[in-house]
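haha ok so turns out i had the wrong file open the whole time. this is the CORRECT one, sorry everyone. sequence first:
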Amino acid sequence: MDFEELKARFFDALDREKGSVSGAARAVGVNRSTAFGWVRKAGLRGRGKTGTTGHPGRAEYDRLRVAGVRRRDAAAQVGVNERTARDWDRGIRKIGDARLHADGRRVDYKTGVTIIVPVSSEPSVAAVEATLHPRYLTVTDRELIADLRRQGESFRAIGRALGRPASTVKREIDTRSVNGVYRPHHAQRAWATSRPRPKESKLALDGPLRDHVAGKLREQWSPEQICQALVIEFPDDEDMRVSPETIYQAIYLQARGGLRREVAAALRTGRTRRTPRRRPDQRTSRFVEEMVMISERPAEVTDRAVPGHWEGDLIVGTRNESAIVTLVERSTRYVLLGHLPGGHTAEEVRDVLVPLIQTLPAHLRGSLTWDQGCEMAAHKQFSIATGVPVYFRDPHSPWQRGSNENTNGLLRQYFPKGTDLSVHSAEDLEHVAQKLNRRPRKTLDWSTPAERLRNLLTTT
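then structure:
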């Protein structure tokens, strides 16, 4: 069988396989790369296994979106993740380990490389049918403009029908008409094409601005520092202006400024691509068991008026292989230490905390406040075993456990950072705890934690 005959058989199989290039290639015994090359040269586009939309629910999703259904609800109805739905709305296609954006950005999520590739001037269906802010004209608005214009209505009359200024209607007709004829669907496609407004980056061309930015990056200045310094150093030169985002894009996006080679020295993080962020309502819970946050902690705990409420944390040794549980009572500053010589998994921490708390009388088991470390994933099991509720402080708010943070600093006098904590026995920890509890404290009017706790035990 010659080459042309094989190629002809492949295209016949392509029709039988409903456009699946891979399926047709398997049917005639052709290498997939060769098959995709034939399809590209023929100006065709493979449909994949499930049709032109790729996902069996895509057509239904598009119908729901056109009908005005919210993205989140439409995604739930067709059974896809909201992020996949957002990609569909934005015209983003997944290609292997990369995403091809409608504006030509191809982001490889394994290597972190972003490149700009040529894209068709014709907008995608998603871009044409995208539901945006009400200030934008929709295809329905444009159809109404065309209908009323054919009836000879004035700009003002059309504007009143749309609930928009007459100037908006005039500008739309003047800008989108072709040979004096306004065609609504052509106007919608032209608008979708013009929306991205692609233009060359300020830092893509050699010149004083690019040289100045590159020089400051080499001095480890942040993009925001560079932006603000330009205004001060060149107050009358409007060409010497650039936003922090433009500098970030010149670093992160290949071919958008050529500053990628500066990234290692430019940014304090040294990252080669942006870190994805999520809104608080989209983040997955840290633990399987729902956390009770510190905002729900009783007021009596906050003002330290009632004893028996504890703050807890870990101090860890070299290579995070060993740890010590530290507990501090909020009103007396009394310290309890637990031994973790072999590790600090959630189960190991739970098994140390439970007997440590159970050594206390019932009236001194009020609550425990912890940070959001993964070592406290078994907090529900701890609460069931001891009857002590656990509250979690907010992220990046160490002052909400101030007594424990201060005590951990004092403990470093006995257990320096970077040392192996497994060499200390439980008796060693008890000895250190007693030393701290016998120290007078200024916050206790120079009483000791041991004296304050003894008073509590003898008066109740």
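The two ends are 99 Å apart (CA to CA).
again sry for the mixup
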